[in-house]
Give the backbone structure.
Amino acid sequence: MNKIKNIGILTSGGDSPGMNAAIRAVVRASIYYDIEVTGFLRGYEGLINDDCMPMDRKSVANIIQRGGTILKTARSENFKTVEGRKTAYENLKARKIDALIVIGGDGTFTGANVFAQEYDFPIVGLPGTIDNDLVGTDFTIGYDSAINTVIDAVDKIRDTAESHDRLFIVEVMGRDSGLIALRSGIGVGAEAILIPEANMGVEDVLHKLEHSRKDKASKIIIVAEGDDAGGAFKVGEILQSKYPHYDTKVSVLGHIQRGGKPTCMDRVLASRLGVSAVEGLIKGERNVMAGQVNKEMIYTPFDHAIKHIDAEKVSSTWLKLIDILSF
Ligand code: ATP
């Protein structure tokens, strides 16, 4: 087995709280195992533009508690082209980088998979996305922080909703996945949630409101941005016309869900996964995502990790829980 001597690291796609903790863990573990680390800026754009810097112990000091990513992130259209990936490969070779660790979501791993196959290049991925929509890890880095941000925000909304007897429609992130809506909905005691996976529609929400507790002054409906119902404002319009006696308000939480300090759960997960990614590369793992399932560190091939729907994560049991608790 060839000894890995220089690992390149990058963060790609949407940022998530805990990416910095993951970068720190990769850098510190690499130094521990006598491997050099090169940090590429702005995701795959950094590989193509050869925009990078050497990383040492000190370069990752005092970042474990910071949101965002010190390596910056970007979406790179160039990396989707054959020429873009060729330039990236030539830059890596010129710098004698013999493996990559990429931190991102399904798009990042799709790109890594294409590149790894084209150039037979060892890559290990770390699940860095607030969406929690990857197969092969119970939780992604950033998910816990994001749902806690949602809970903080909706608790505040609940105070004003309760004072004014209001019905609030709160839109949370999740273009293809309702997992942020699902957990935060349970955590805030929502009356109903609308998520792309369940395909329920506003009719279902109407039904739930009809049957929910009449003595409850405030009502909260959580809508994932990717739900087919047409977005929180559309849902708000329909509910307002059906329930004119309710003062219906819409709140779109937006990018606050990506920011802020990572929770302890995310810092520890990122730290474990970062070390696991380096150790995986040393042991010969390639084209896999490092994940944590039932407390164990495991590696899942990219093409399986990006399969999106993890039936366990969006099971009808979770949806029923919301029905039971709001009854
Ligand atoms: P998030 O889940 O937070 O959105 P993500 O990793 O899914 O993160 P994307 O923007 O979907 O974010 O993907 C990140 C980058 O991965 C893209 O900007 C592009 O550079 C690369 N990428 C995605 N799909 C491909 C592909 N088919 N071929 C090559 N590169 C790709």
